[in-house]
Design brief:
Elements lengths: L1 H28 L6 E11 L2 E10 L3 H8 L4 E11 L7 E15 L4 E6 L5 E4 L2 H8 L1 E9 L9 E9 L9 H6 L10 E5 L2
Antiparallel strand pairs: 1-2, 2-7, 3-4, 3-8, 4-5, 5-6, 8-9
Length: 195
């Protein structure tokens, strides 16, 4: 008789747990797509290289802003892809490049420090808004040589920006993965190009 009660409790607990996961899952999976937006994407060919420029707006959630102000560095990745378009099959990724930025708050001065992780350059800003504006404007980033592309094919350049949750301190990562307030990412912005 005790075994039946124990089985019922186990089933009841399991059902409650599954219901909780089902209720929380949409909140976890739904990224705040309005928090980061790729506003514009353009390309120009110069000396045989396709250079891309983009304007991205960043809006931090209260949780990410509080963490930043408490000394947690935030890293943002801007991902660029060139995809070869195919009529009957999936498009092929020809190249993918990433720019990464670390945003830090300096409590003594109240300033914000941006580190470009690809080259180590550092920039200091008085306000968070001006720091986020800086990382949101990318001009003439060399993406791919035109020699690598076939003129008979059609290609798409894509751009996306996101908060890199994996770069957060280990104790904060589980919370960030489970909270929609930390899932800051834009949708892919597409631009058709001809080499």
């Amino acid at each position: 008789m005790h075994a039946c009660k124990k089985d019922e409790m186990t089933r009841s607990t399991l059902v409650s747990l599954l219901l909780s996961i089902m209720i929380l899952l949409p909140a976890v999976c739904s990224a705040q797509s309005s928090a980061i937006q790729v506003e514009s994407l353009s390309s120009v060919i110069s000396q045989g290289v396709i250079n891309v420029s983009t304007k991205i707006t960043y809006e931090l959630s209260d949780e990410t802003r509080n963490a930043l102000d408490q000394g947690v560095a935030l890293e943002f990745d801007v991902i660029f892809r060139v995809r070869k378009k195919r009529q009957w099959l999936w498009d092929i990724v020809v190249t993918e490049k990433m720019l990464s930025y670390r945003v830090e708050h300096q409590p003594l001065s109240g300033h914000y420090l941006i580190t470009e992780l690809t080259n180590g350059k550092r920039h200091q800003f008085r306000t968070l808004g001006s720091a986020l504006q800086y990382i949101g404007k990318i001009d003439a980033f060399p993406l791919i040589d035109t020699d690598m592309l076939n003129q008979q094919n059609r290609y798409t350049v894509q751009a996306r920006a996101e908060l890199n949750i994996q770069s957060l301190p280990a104790p904060l990562r589980p919370l960030a993965y489970l909270s929609a307030h930390w899932h800051l990412a834009s949708a892919w912005q597409n631009l058709d190009i001809r080499p």
